[in-house]
Structure formats: C-alpha cells, structure tokens
Amino acid sequence: MKHSGELCFIDSSGNMDRENCRVFLLLTHSCAGGLPLGILLCQSEDEQTIAQGLEQLKQVVGEKGFAGRGHEGPQLVITDDCRAERGALRKAFPKATLLLCSFHLLQAVWRWLWSKESGVTHGDRPALFAIVKEMLYCQEIGSVDRLYSEARGHPVAASYEKFLRYLDRLYARRECWALSYRGSFLTRGNNTNNFAEAAMRVLKDKILQRTKAFNLPQLFDLLTSRPSDLKGNHVSRLEALMNQALRIRSNKMKGVLTEQAQPSRSVTGDRPQEDIASDDVSLVDNMMEEIKSRCQDPHFTAGLLAMAKQYNVLRSNPSKLLSAFHSFGKSGSLTSKRAAILRRAARRQGPMIGCQPTAVARRKSGAGSRQRLFSGRPVKQHSLSLAVVLNTSHSKKH
Length: 398
Known about the structure:
It comes from Dissostichus mawsoni. This is MULE transposase domain-containing protein. This protein is α/β, with parallel strands linked by helices. The protein has a domain at 102-182. It contains 19 helices and seven strands. The chain has a five-stranded mixed sheet, with helices on both faces. A two-stranded antiparallel ribbon has the order 6-7. Helix 3 (83-92) links the parallel strand 4 and strand 5 (97-100). Helix 2 (47-61) packs parallel to helix 3 (83-92), helix 4 packs antiparallel against helix 5 and helix 5 (125-137) packs antiparallel against helix 6.
C-alpha cells in the first residue's frame, strides 16, 4: 500500500492486561479509514524498549514494507508529544520526518494552562490559548514569526513569565506542529492522530470489552492470530502479510487460481479454459451427490430438511441466496473461536479497564462506578473547543 510509505500514525495506551503493558498501534490512512500496519507490546514505555520493538517490526515487514521503502520506513510520522516515542522513531527511522498532532498540541497547551505550575488565572487562560492556536493554524511561515513577536508584547501574556518561557519552547519546535511548515509534505489533509485514537478505543471497547482478562502472552495471541479454516487452525496475521498470498484450502482451486494469474499459460497452454470451468462444475456436482447420500442418515435428515425449507424461502431473492451460499459454514462454532474467547473474557470476573476519572462525573445516570456502561451511556462531550469556550478542563477519550 503506497500510503504506508507516505504517512503513518502511532499511538500507545496501557491498562489493557493484568501486567499493565503498553500497546502501540502503527497505522496508515486510506479512503476506508485507518489501516493497521503493526502492533508493539512492551512492558515499559522507555525509548530503548520502543526502539527494539520497531527494529523487530522492520525485520518482519522486510524490504517490501512501507510501500517498498523497507527499513527506511515512512516519509512522515504523526505522533503525540511523547519524548520516548519520538526518540525511538528517530532511531528506527532516521530519514522520516516526525510531526506533532495538532489536537494533542492544543490539548497539552490547555492542560498546561490549567496546571498549578503555570500560575495562570482562570480568566486569562482562553486568551493565552488563542495565541498558540493562531500560531498553529496560520497559513504562512512568516506569520508564525510575526505572531510570536506580537505574543511577547501581548498585555496578558507579558504578565506571565512562565507562559513566555513555555511559548519559547514551543516556538523552537515550530517546524513540527505549525501547519504552515507542512506545505511540501504529503499529509493529504491529515494533521491529527485521530485514526490511532479511534483504533485504540475500538480495541478497548469492542475487542477487549473493557476487561483485563489476558496476560501478555494471551494478549499477543489474541491480537496476532485468527481462526482460518473449519478445523479452527490459527494463522498468524503477520505471516499472512509476509506471504502476501490468499489462503485457499483446496489444492485444486490453488491450481486454478495459479493458471488464471498467468494469462499466457492459461490461454495458449495445454489446458483449455473449458476444463477449468468443468472442474468447478464437477466440484459442485460432487457436493450435491454427497448431500443426497446423507439423506439416508437419520442424524442429517432434520438439518437437511431445514436447509431445504430455507432454500425455498430464499430462492425468489437471488441476492440473499448468493449471500447465504457465501456465508455457509462461516458462522459455526468451530470458526467463531475468537468470538467465544472474547465472550468468555467479558463474563470473567476480574479487574476491569477503568474509564477516565472525569468520565464518571459527566454521566447523567446515577452510576458512580468507573466501569463502562454497556447500555444507555450518555454521549460524551470530548470537544476541546467547547472546553475552551466554557473555560473548563479537558480529558482523554480512552
């Protein structure tokens, strides 16, 4: 995928397993949303550990990874302002340009203004926040320098020496976060890390069901394997990406697809196209003959009658009938082991993945627990702009 060589997103979160390990998600953008490129499971969030994980990921993807860039990695990486994470990315991908997520920058500024360290009074916080926001969204590089000079003479900012020092540190890194410096980069309109934020919340809410039901090896197995056939055999997702091949169970179908992939051989070779079509027909004929032979077995009679009745219901609707053919056998107990594991984990009694402390206070219901509400949960107000207008603190989503 060419987008993986242009731009990637990375984000981390913890509080998912019993040992409280860190989970890093590496994604790229597409027309369908964020697509995962890799997952790192680390027991700590120090720079050396993350760098080792990225080096192992480079070995897995090989030279064909990142749209053929291989070990050079993507051209651009958007992250939050984590020093260890950005340091590890510089070691693993020295040729990549690291950009700061616009939302995380503004969120960090707003939280700093609310901290005791800043010493900013309640009424002056929106005005100081507007200075940084205007520098972020200005269209010309020269405007950033002009706004910085004007900020040092601003009547409100001049009375806070700590804010001026904080602004100096931000200005020294303006190439990472100011949008006016991204004109020559292939960001394709992506200036935030929202793809990674959304993927992390899906992982906690939908996959893990807000439960700490796994240790580190179990979490690794859950995230990297899946049932692939009717026997329940698990195939590594990373192995499938490395092989870059479709997994076909029938040897006959493998041969058919191989010949179809080579037009010169399939057209001018010894085997005509009619033989390939006849093989498909014979495969269906064999299945029908086997089903007929099963009718004599009393154990299969009830099931075959139910299938025949359902066929009579769907025969007038070709689209539903085709969908039923494609989904035949895919929803059985043998192929839904992954879903069964997640259901057992949701029922298991154990520590839960807690919500953010401020999420409890925003609930309209009377539940005072930090557990996730599975039904009737009120809509969350995670708007940073609304928090600035109301002059209130802001919290995370996951």
